[in-house]
Write a structure and sequence with these properties.
mainly alpha; 0% strand
């Protein structure tokens, strides 16, 4: 039992800093500004469910999907890092969502609900960095005894569910954080968070390019 709890905490500790729901909470609050509490809670729940689904799929079948299509993890890092960089850059240079909401007297709830998966879940919440970590953790689940595999799989799902709960709570309570910080503080935190997203995206791309370089170097040396 202790081993299962330890593995749950390991998965949770490995994924939470990469997902970083607390850092993304101000961006979520600004993107859902002007919507009712019910809509914001619904979007937060959808993002959490989508995030759990993506991480679980990456953990268990991600490597097989990549192998089937002949896509390397380095390619995922380069492509995904580019998407994250573009998304962060867009947020960094976007004028305040508050200005947009003042123009609209009644925000269209379908618009924000349609954005629950893209871009809020992916790549802003669960991006290529989180997927790469999940793929790496999934590769360590291959054990000899079936009972150990079952325990490891359940522990992994438990850790991911804890991450999903953290996403929901941080996003659901983001409006309170926005009220505490005020318009100026929220704007500053959003810009800082967006800048970090851009930096994370560039770092993910660099990691992928570095892997490509090592492969090319090894191939050239072998030739």
């Amino acid at each position: 039992m202790k081993a299962v709890v330890r593995e749950v905490l390991l998965i949770f500790a490995a994924l939470l800093p990469i997902v970083n729901p607390l850092g993304m909470a101000p961006i979520f609050a600004e993107m859902t500004l002007g919507y009712s509490v019910k809509i914001r809670r619904t979007v937060a729940l959808r993002v959490a469910v989508n995030g759990v689904g993506l991480l679980v799929a990456s953990l268990f079948i991600g490597s097989y999907v990549l192998e089937f299509f002949g896509v390397s993890l380095a390619a995922v890092q380069v492509g995904g890092g580019l998407v994250v960089t573009i998304a962060g850059w867009s947020i960094l240079n976007k004028k305040s969502w508050a200005d947009d909401k003042r123009v609209e007297s009644a925000p269209n709830s379908q618009e924000i609900l349609s954005q629950a998966f893209y871009p809020i879940t992916m790549p802003l919440t669960v991006g290529p960095g989180s997927i790469a970590v999940a793929l790496t953790l999934g590769s360590n689940l291959h054990v000899e005894r079936h009972i150990e595999l079952i325990y490891s799989a359940l522990a992994a799902v438990g850790g991911i569910l804890c991450v999903g709960m953290a996403i929901f709570l941080c996003y659901w309570l983001s409006e309170g954080l926005q009220r505490v910080l005020g318009p100026t503080g929220t704007s500053i935190l959003i810009r800082l968070s967006a800048f970090l997203v851009v930096c994370i995206g560039i770092q993910i791309m660099f990691n992928g390019l570095q892997d490509f370089y090592h492969v090319l170097k090894a191939g050239t040396g072998a030739g």
